[in-house]
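Comment thread on ticket #2218

A.B. wrote:
> Attaching the input chain for the structure job we discussed in standup.
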Amino acid sequence: MCSSFSLKTVLLNLAILVQINGVVSASNLPTDQVALLKIKSKITDDPHGVLGSWNDSLPFCKWLGVTCGRRHQRVTSLNLTGKGLAGSLSPFIGNLSFLRYIFLDENQFHGSIPPEIGRLSRLQNISLISNFFTGEIPANLSSCSKLRELSLYRNKLSGKIPNIFSSLQMLKIFDLRRNNFTGRILPSIGNLTSLEILYLSRNPLGGSIPDSLNRLKELRELGLAHNGLTGVFPMFSYNLSMSEFTWELLIQTEVHIAFS
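C.D. wrote:
> Ran it. Output below, let me know if you need it in another format.
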């Protein structure tokens, strides 16, 4: 009787320990690994099997397309450019709190750009070129104050360009070509004083070109072709070589403006 009771007690304790260990193990799964697996779960087509390494057989820092920092096991870069991936981008990308670089060019991502990206305060580059993203640019990208590049060329994004410029003082590349953005170019774009490349070509934008563009002293490439822009182009105070390049680029476009 006593022996039977002791055996039952031991088995019960073992069962409890197994359950506790299971809970602890799940809760100790690295946040970045969970986020990456959530991103993988939203991929509906992986024709080249590039996410085959995203499993427990390898540390997540060794997964294809993933780079981690040297001093910590946190994801700093996600580069899946040209992998032919199809699906949507999981909002769990916003849990990769050390992420600095997102390169998802030349895939078949669709759906909206998750606003959770705006939580990534360390983010420096967002490049989603040649996909099928729809909807608007998340307005909370203004929280990514370290952002240096925002390249959304050749997607299906729409709506007005949000007023995210006041806090993006470090932005150097802003490329929205070949989308469906409407409305006007906001005067606050002149706050992007570090901007070197600005492409807004092939969007149904309208209105006049804001005079505030002449505050962009670092600008060296400007594309405004195939829009509905009108009015007088603002005078620039660049050095001669910069001015020649800028004017040449504008003359080659189909912007309907009068030069002052």
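A.B. wrote:
> Thanks. Noting for the ticket: The chain has two domains: 31-182, 185-260.
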